[in-house]
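As a representative case, we now present a protein record of this kind.
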Amino acid sequence: MSSVRSSSGRSGRRLKNEINVVPYIDVMLVLLIIFMVTAPLITPGVVELPSVGQAANIPATPIEVQITEDGKVSWRKREAGATNIPVERSALAQTILSELKPDQPVVIAADGKVPYETVMKVMDDLRKNGVTKLGLLVDQKGDAATPNASPKGATNKTNTPKK
């Protein structure tokens, strides 16, 4: 009985049931340094955008649809010396489509006293029949800094639609 054993039965080492994360942290730091060094060396993709000088800047002359205060509809090409050609509202879309060139806009110039519903019906008729470039023509008067300002002596009145 010459050998003496320890009370634990083994040579003094115990098993740990924990994960040592220090080597994982070392690997992550090395990868971080590698990515930080190589990221500036990668060239981003180059996109060639068209410049203004290369684009065609010849706008098409729009067709103007006019709606008068009494609801009469006419149209004209917005050219010097062009006259308004009266047309029935039911035939307006077909008349415009027969004169319309590809990518040519159509603008609606309605009197300020024309009911909103009438303007929207004309726009809806044109859109249903294939007019894609459609806009409203407005009169740009007054100071842009104060859009709600009224001229001297003028009073603000609320217009209610007449039925």
